[in-house]
Each structure stands twice: as structure tokens, then as C-alpha cells.
Fold this sequence. Notes:
This protein has ten helices and no strands. It has 198 residues and is an all-alpha fold. Helix 1 (4-24) crosses helix 2.
Amino acid sequence: xxxxxxxxxxxxxxxxxxxxxxxxxxxxxxxxxxxxxxxxxxxxxxxxxxxxxxxxxxxxxxxxxxxxxxxxxxxxxxxxxxxxxxxxxxxxxxxxxxxxxxxxxxxxxxxxxxxxxxxxxxxxxxxxxxxxxxxxxxxxxxxxxxxxxxxxxxxxxxxxxxxxxxxxxxxxxxxxxxxxxxxxxxxxxxxxxxxxxx
Length: 198
């Protein structure tokens, strides 16, 4: 069993790596940078993680383990007065689970670009339950014909894609379209737009 000091060192490495990888990605972050941020010797990283990629995956997994569904927001999906409100509440639920941690969103974006298919098992492991639980709450709206789609998981995955990629797209157009408000305001606008859809 690792000592308390070794566990603390490992946690500092993971925290520093997650932060730096979310800022510069895998290729833009060196183990030297991580060691400096964690206030350790670079060789210490390799005592805990054989390769930089192992550290990257461990940092991503640690961040994904923090994703939680709020029970009160799940209840709002279940208790919505109609399918439009259920969709808007679903988007809000996904935004609260993923979109409030910008570091995680950036890490997911870098990961999809730099790891590609190698990322799939890790994402499935940590996000499958989120997708399946939320889809289960949407399914009654499909079953009673108020939502016209064949698969609730497709709706959930579409909302996940919007939340994960929104900030990067917003930053591209925010200076071109000065009428755009803050990210939070636009997420609220998305929820309202979803609620207005037939």
C-alpha cells in the first residue's frame, strides 16, 4: 500500500497535469512543466507514471470521475409539464454535469483531437452511465409520442456535443458578433430555444 506521502505526491501530479493539459493539450505540455507546477522533480513523475501518455490518461480519468448528475435536475426532466420543457431541462442537466468545469471541457476537446479513437474506451467508461440515465428520463416522452425521435440517446449525445464544444465556437464568433452575451447567457438562450421547438 502506498504511503500517505506517495499518495499526496501522486495527487499533486494528477492535479497539476489535469490543469496544464487542459491549457495546452498533450503536445503543448511537458512533464517538466507538470513537475514544476507540482513542486517535484521530473523523475518523480516517471516513478508514478511510466509514460507521459499514462499520466495524460490518468489526469483525464480523474477529471471524468468528478462528473455528477444532479438529482434535482433529473427530477425536473421527469416532472416537466411537456416534452418541450423536458428537452430544455435535459440540456440544463447536461450543462450542469459537464459545462460548469471549463478545464474538463478543454481537456475533452484536446483529447478528442490528440487521442482520437484511443479516447473512446475511457469516455464510454465514464460517460455511458450519464447518457443512459438521462436517456431513460427522456424515453417516456418518446414512448407517449410527444418527442418525435427514434432514440433518446441521440438527443442526449447531441446536447453533450453542444455543451462540450460550445465555448470554443463561441470564442471564435464573440468578437465578430458583439451582440452575443456571456457563455452563461447563451446557454440560457439555447435552453429557451429548445423549449420553443415543436
